[in-house]
Amino acid sequence: MRSGTRSRTRARCPGVALAALAALITLPLAHAPAVAATQAACNPADAAQGRPATASSAENSGTSASAAFDGATSTRWSSQFSDPQWIQVDLGATEDLCSIDLNWETAYGKDFQLQASADGQNWTTLKTVTGATGGTTSYDVSGSGRYVRMYGTARGTGYGYSLWEMAVHTTATGTTGPVQGGGDLGPNVIVVDPSTPNLQQKFDDVFQQQESAQFGTGRYQFLLKPGTYNGINAQIGFYTSISGLGPNPDDTQINGDVTVDAGWFNGNATQNFWRSAENLAITPSSGTDRWAVAQAAPFRRIHVKGGLNLAPSGYGWASGGYIADSKIDGTVGPYSQQQWYTRDSSVGGWTNGVWNMTFSGVQGAPATNFDSGPYTTLDTTPVSREKPYLYLDGNDYKVFVPGKRTNARGVSWPNTPGTSLSLDQFYVVKPGATAATINAALAQGLNLLFTPGIYHLDQTINVTRPDTVVLGLGLATLVPDGGIDAMHVADVDGVRLAGFLIDAGTVNSDTLLRIGTPGSTADHSADPTTMQDVFVRIGGAGPGLATNSVVVNSNNVLIDHTWLWRADHGSGVGWDTNRADYGLTVNGNDVLATGLFVEHFNKYDVYWSGERGRTIFFQNEKAYDAPNAAAITHDGVVGYAAYKVADSVTSHEAWGLGSYCNYTADPSIVQADGFETPVTSGIKMHDLLVISLGGNGQYAHVVNGTGAPTSGTSTVPSKVTSFP
């Protein structure tokens, strides 16, 4: 994110020891957990899907080993026409194995062994099969290993061995029975009510610790029980969230402020990331609340009984942001904010803005004036669904899961459609939980509530059940270790992913978050999967590597506010040190993105190959650290477009798109275009801009050779209001 001349953050006194802070934390009453359904003997999730694979040979380049583990029955591995041959997969960690599925193509194995190994060198035979006849067969096995292979000794045809898919199933390790749902909310959730002693001190102590802890390990969630809180100023720092526990925002009233400012960074708000406010009402002490944030700082389901200032005190640089399902009675003043997206809300007024202010379904929004100003306004949002949230029903915690809205305008509350889930339907994940237990809970049919913390994963989290909720509190952070993917979501209806951060590990992951299996074709329009306030970071907190950040294969997915960020500052930052080629890849059809922030990837930031995709608001910066033009030249073109619609696509539409270049490693780079699309009547792009930040690199054009080049150091947008 653009921050101008960055200075080192000032050291802050922690104020109180962590033990003293812990003493101030008020935990909710523990509820007697309900016993979950009896755990299946074998996890139905495929532990091998998407994992690294090798084989003794491949018939040709289109039948590589990985094709047997991609979840698609339209791709296959096939070997050369000889015996023996083998194919193996690396599960990423030693697992207890219970079943292996083989889905043979016509060229099948007649005699083979299913084997496991701890090191990929020394193999133990789990099952010997003779006289097989192909087709799809599941084999029960017993043993353990990190590597699993099919070792073929006799072919059933004159061709090679050919598998559409090979799946490996594991038993949950480290558990002694069904995973329990419900329980308390863990050590980093601070639950308060208006009578809580030293309430202001609680906010101040966490803020003092988190104010400048941009890459720190603290994670906190404040939960405010319904009632009226007088004279409170809740300053919100990094990895801190504040939420009301009422069914509706007005149930939790703050006569005071919920504040984000930028004193820690000398009045520059462009690095005020990773924090949130949700589901409460604010009557600001001065009449106007201040929420000066950058990316990954959602402001949801808030009633501001006054005005809202989105700039830091002193009106320094600011680069945000996102508002949804909120009512601001007074005027919203973005002032120095470079860009902002507001969805399904109500405002008393909106004054100015810098480059790209986009609105959909917002009562009181200004009219579109992109020719001469920053505004792009859509009267409604085509499809939306609000984020799930925790609330109190009497003394019982529940999670409310809002329903889908079409052509929405204005807030969803006080009568938000949806359903409530009791806490005992959730595995409440606390620091120290293992990925095996998390997957066992999912296999039982539990949802997931991640409490604030950092969770290192030694196996991919597999979400396979329709309508599963995966909800994070306090920016809960998932770190995949050993090169695994962090999370896979099956091609099913209605999964809700919300409120967590995926931080790439030091060994390259292929895909940090994958929604749907490759080749997914099901129609999910009635009950789409949603991804909301889910953020991805590669580097910054240390070296991180991932080829793909998010890949969407399912149809009809709603991406509602995400920031996918290859770090440009912090530790572990360099062109190859935190390499990440692609930000968002969309292969599914009818996918809608509302509030899309994707920055600094080595190749395409967004690559969209699904049909009928739509994006409302896009913010991007190209990678600062491209060493030279040659490093980003492909197919004779200098620079990968920030937003690329694949050449095969015939229908796509987008509104309010901005891409900025800040090529600090080589300011002489001239990027060909910010955006690339096919030129066809079904492609409609509205209100696009490109900007050179201070002359560090330039754009030759806006989109497909259209639009004036940027030039000089004046940081003035070059715009195209309609393309083609």
UniProtKB/TrEMBL annotation:
Full protein name: Coagulation factor 5/8 type domain-containing protein
Keyword tRNA processing among record annotations: no
InterPro entries documented for this protein: FA58C, Galactose-bd-like_sf, Pectin_lyas_fold, Pectin_lyase_fold/virulence, SACTE_4363
Domain F5/8 type C: 30-171
Region (Disordered): 47-69
Pfam families for this protein: F5_F8_type_C (PF00754)
Record field: compositional bias (Polar residues): 54-69
Cleavable signal peptide: 1-36
Keywords on record: Signal
Domain of life where this protein originates: Bacteria
Native organism taxonomy: Bacteria, Bacillati, Actinomycetota, Actinomycetes, Kitasatosporales
